[in-house]
Amino acid sequence: MRVRVEIEGENGIRTVFEREGDLLNEDMRILTIRAVVRFLDEHLSSIKDVYEREMEELTIKERILKFLKYDERAPPDWFTSSDLKRIYEEVYEESVKLSTISTYLAQLHEEGVLERRGSRAQRKYRLVRSMTAEERRHNMTAETAENI
What we know:
By secondary structure, the chain is an alpha+beta fold. It folds into two domains: about 1-55, no CATH class; about 60-148, Winged helix-like DNA-binding domain superfamily/Winged helix DNA-binding domain (Arc Repressor Mutant, subunit A). It contains six helices and four strands. A two-stranded antiparallel ribbon has the order 1-2. The mean pLDDT is about 80.
């Protein structure tokens, strides 16, 4: 599949972003979306203002989810609630309690959005990627063993 974004400026100059690849692969889709957003951000000054205004209207949980899925500053792999708290506070320039971040991460895990591993003291999360049935069974078995 191919994604193509073309911007034509007032002066008639065209700027093009193009990417080819397997967009059925979830990781590739996420990387492509981030790349398109970055391209648009560089070439359309107003898109960042719209994104930031939209983010201000969201709840903390919604911000976390949108940030993890689409923002290039999001952790690319496993992260802790402390990692996300630090990044969240840098990005949104507002403090948030670690317990709030932990609660929302746990909820996103329960909703199937995030994977998690480790004991309560060393818990880590990452976005769920497309898994085979065998991988899902293995994760469920491993999580059950951790909780015992």
